């Protein structure tokens, strides 16, 4: 059997971990189970990542990168500030509707990280990265449209993300498309008023 380098094995293991934990939850994400998911020896996981926590960190980073990329691709380049914010919020909400398992896994990993000292930095990095990207998209939309923000972009981003996280949790816990649509529109209206 040909040797596979750690650099090649890393994305395979991350994908296997995401698939397994999306299906069965974070508690099922032992290094043994993740190795079995990919069909490799458990030692391969340890060799590639060192610890389970490092693998979990990589999973959080990958999920975050994937979701951010999808939203950034939806950013219009020639729309008004208001239309851009609506488009970005709708694109982000589509990721929740189309990939609920990713959001559930991110939520589980976030809660797990709160009680795992080695993962708290990954959690800060995850939320910090999301906040930075959101603030950047808001600033870019305002600059493109010549819109003067009434509050700092980071404050607006924090407000939006707090509401969006709540809507996401409601979607995962008690789905109601009609109510969710109304709440998303209300959140966007509040963000625009704040901006």
Please describe what this structure looks like.
This protein is mainly α and 195 residues long. The protein has two domains: 1-50, Arc Repressor Mutant, subunit A (Orthogonal Bundle); 57-194, Tetracycline Repressor, domain 2. The protein has nine helices and no strands. α1 crosses α2 (31-38). The model has no long low-confidence stretch (mean pLDDT 94). Pfam families: TetR_C_31 (PF17940), TetR_N (PF00440).
* Largest sheet descriptor: none
CATH fold-level assignment of the largest domain? Tetracycline Repressor, domain 2
The CATH architecture assignment of the largest domain turns out to be: Orthogonal Bundle
CATH class of the largest domain: Mainly Alpha
End-to-end distance:
58 Å
Q: Kindly provide the radius of gyration, computed on alpha-carbon positions and rounded to a whole number of angstroms.
A: 19 Å
- Count of DSSP E strands? 0
Class from secondary-structure proportions:
mainly alpha
Could you say how many structural domains there are in total? 2
Mean pLDDT, to the nearest integer, reads 94
Catalogue the unreliable spans: none
Q: CATH H-level name of the largest domain... which superfamily?
A: Tetracycline Repressor, domain 2
The best one-word shape is: elongated
Protein name: TetR/AcrR family transcriptional regulator
DNA-binding region: 30-49
Pfam families: TetR_C_31, TetR_N
GO molecular function, one term: DNA binding
